Amino acid sequence: MKTRIAIIGGGASGVLAALHLARRTDPAGLLVIEPRQGLARGVAYSTTEPAHLLNVRAGNMGALADAPEDFVAWLSQRGDGAADGTSFMPRMLWGEYLAARFATSNVPVLHQCVTRLEKRGNSAILHMDDGSRVEAGRTVLAMGHALPVDIPCCDDVVRNSGRYVRAVWDTWPRWPEADAPVVLVGSGLTAIDILLRLRAGGYGGVITMISRHGLLPCAHGPVESVPAPVIPMDTLPTARQYLHHVRLALKDGVSWRAAVDSLRPCSNALWARLSDKERWRFRRHLFHRWHTARHRMAPPVARRIVEEMASGHLIVRRGHVAAVSGDRHGLRVHVRASEGEYHLMADMVMNCTAPDTNFGRVDNPLLHELFALGMAVHGDLGSTFATDVNGALFGHDGQASPWLHAIGPLRAGSLFETTAIPEIRQQAQALSTFLFPT
Question: Of 304, 338, 331, which is closest to residue 185 (Cα–Cα)?
């Protein structure tokens, strides 16, 4: 089989790439390769839980970069009168929307898993797990997020007990006992989602979230704006100076939400100006604050979390999970914190930490081969891939590949903002314009 462009991955990133490319070239020359039958949903949008809401307002969730309100239009066509541009809709609805848009694109799909990529000049041979091959002129990597890093000292007894869940979006081996304690490692948006899933499934026990800083995501508020980014582009590129300008804006009466939102269009450019040392400093000292302010909960979810904490059914604690041990009766969680060590007993422990971006340890033979053959190098601070402005992967020779590109979370090695739909669709549009200028 031959194709002009192969897109490896049929989640949101891959489908957004396909939709934008199909507007500039014959869709028959594209091929999305995805082992799962359901396309467009990936991890985030395959949920069937109505309480899992989008963290972006519906008016900015259109699939196409030049039509951000297309999602609202689709909802209206369905007769969903509850939707407007300011709503935070269920994520499963957005998954349906993206699948519907892809279904009309006429882009072919191959339900296989790519296990190896063989370079042939300025093209590639993609090897499938069933032994078949696809010859592609260009290849776009769109595999989304990897699993989180496993919890330290989590032995086979714990892993095989059914009480520890690393892949929280997969089918769980069991559910916790009705009133037995549950520990969620992490306190970000994934942990919030898992709490909502547990409650929807009838679990009524106490949930303890543990994270290094013990911070929950902030809540969305009314839409606010400022006329310009609160960090000017000519600011001295240091983490300290960036923070200084944010503080000046807050002192002048700009709300923290408006300050953060003003930086979204230019955050990648500001990040690119920082040296490796300053990026490391930002990650160490400021990232946790930025992350909780930038990646917010929808207001209904935030209200639910306030109620959970007020009732004592949700406890958030600071610390680092150093080990998990146990037997068939339960798990013992060993936590280290600045104020000392402590232990928690749990019926189940669920890993809600961030996806692993160190592709050197991610269990994916295709990724390992790209690095081993010199077709890819790690990006900033050892994260994912190093890519150029068009998403082309840099190889060991320091040159950007003319045929191998990445999109979405796989570009975290070079971009600061690369996981939300508005940013990914912009990447998809830029890639399609680069590959097909006219």
Answer: 331
CA distances for 220 relative to 88, 295, 352, angstroms: 10, 9, 21
As beta bridge partners, residue 393 has 387
What pLDDT sits at residue 82?
A: 67
DSSP 428: H
pLDDT confidence tier of residue 424, bands split at 50, 70 and 90: very high
Q: What is the pLDDT of residue 155?
A: 79
Question: How many domains are there within the chain?
Answer: 3
Distance between CA 221 and CA 261 in Å, rounded? 12
Q: What are the φ/ψ torsions at residue 109 (nearest 5 degrees)?
A: -130, 140
Token pair, residue 21, equals 């490319």
Put simply, whether the predicted model's pTM sits higher than 0.85 gets the answer yes
DSSP-based three-state secondary structure for 288: helix
User: What φ, ψ does residue 347 adopt, rounded to 5°?
Assistant: -75, -35
Q: Residue 284 pLDDT > 70, yes or no?
A: yes
Query: Looking at 323, 351, 379, which one is the last position of a domain?
Result: 351
In this structure, the answer to whether residues 180 and 90 fall within a common structural domain is no
User: Is 273 in the same domain as 321?
Assistant: no
191 shares a domain with 64: no
407 alpha carbon, distance to own chain's centre: 12
Give 342-360 pLDDT, tens digit per residue: 999 999 999 999 999 999 8
- What pLDDT, on a 0 to 100 scale, did the predictor assign at position 382? 87
- In the sheet that holds 340-346, the strands lie side by side as 320-327, 330-337, 340-346
Strand residues in 368-421 grouped as ranges (E): 392-394, 400-406
**pLDDT tens digit string along 149-204?**
988 877 788 888 889 999 999 999 999 998 999 999 999 999 999 999 999 999 99
Give the dihedral sign, CA 139/268/359/372.
Answer: positive
What is the SS3 assignment for 310? Answer: helix
CB 181 within 8 A of CB 204: no
Burial 333-349 (b: 16+ CB within 10 A, else e): bbbeeeeeeeebebbbb
Residues 193 and 252 in one domain: no
